[in-house]
Amino acid sequence: MINVTLRQLRYFDALAHHRHFGRAADACAVSQPALSMQIREMEQAVGGVLIERNARQVTLTTFGEDLLRRVRDILRSVDELGDFARASRDKLAGRLRVGMIPTVAPYLLPKVIENLARLHPELDIHVRETLTPKLIKEVAEGRLDTAIVALPVSEPSLTEVALFSENFLLVRPGEDAKTPVPSAEMLREMRLLLLEEGHCFRDQALSFCNMQSSPPREVLDASSLSTLVQMVGAGIGVTLIPEMAVTVETRSAPVTVSRFKHPQPSRTIGMVWRKTSPLAAQLQQISEVVSLAARALRAPKQDGAKEPAKRAGRRKVA
């Protein structure tokens, strides 16, 4: 009988994820020698080499890759035992692993955490911010309980729940405040600043400008919405940002923010989780809390978007 411990399985999973002994050890809160020793003992137990060791990174052997899929199935099943126990409680409590995309997390996360802490103080919330493909993969593999992403994700194994929709706004240099808002066709001839490849928001912006089939005249990439807005303020070009980001990202930049004519570009933000998750009912409750947080963020805009611009003297919303 093969004698492999749950600890060894988790160490191997972490090592496969990080592809580096030091980072895997940090993630598991153990020393690097201790993790390395457990991996060697696991290799002896299963009777095969799991990894190729070199100075820079870890590479899984073919046997290691094959075993990894089974290991993750086992770990997911073990984690679901805890989820079943948590689901049997009358109140939300315990660890909750939530993922968010970068174009949502900085703006929505503070209010979500505040509301969850008030309504469900026994929740231990762990947040991961990364791109949609990684979040979907980690939810499907059981590394995350849920993720907040742009819909649809069209993953058959996941439940999708729409939370809210928001428009995209055009950000231009401040001196353009009195010029007409360009159409989607006109944007193709302008220097358009976008998030780097991998961000779903980039794809949505390109879709609005109908740039999928033919490359734009000139596109510059950035890693964050903050950088995009600052580049616009410096006169480098124009960009699109989601409505929830406007207040935060434009408060210190000399830019003007405008709405497109109808139909306005928009996106739907939602929560996803595994259809087999024992926490499905609890996650549905949490989705309602997230929806309320998003509604609170959008509520001030109904009072008039131009008022903050007058006080700041730096930007204007047209």
From TrEMBL:
Residues 298-318 are annotated as: Disordered. Residues 300-310 have a biased composition (Basic and acidic residues). Signal peptide: none annotated. Transmembrane segments: none annotated. It comes from the Bacteria. SUPFAM superfamilies: Periplasmic binding protein-like II, Winged helix' DNA-binding domain. It holds the Pfam family LysR_substrate. Keywords: Activator, DNA-binding, Transcription, Transcription regulation. Residues 4-61 form the HTH lysR-type domain. NodD regulates the expression of the nodABCFE genes which encode other nodulation proteins. NodD is also a negative regulator of its own expression. Binds flavonoids as inducers. Belongs to the LysR transcriptional regulatory family. This is LysR substrate-binding domain-containing protein. It comes from Bradyrhizobium brasilense. The lineage of its organism: Bacteria, Pseudomonadati, Pseudomonadota, Alphaproteobacteria, Hyphomicrobiales.
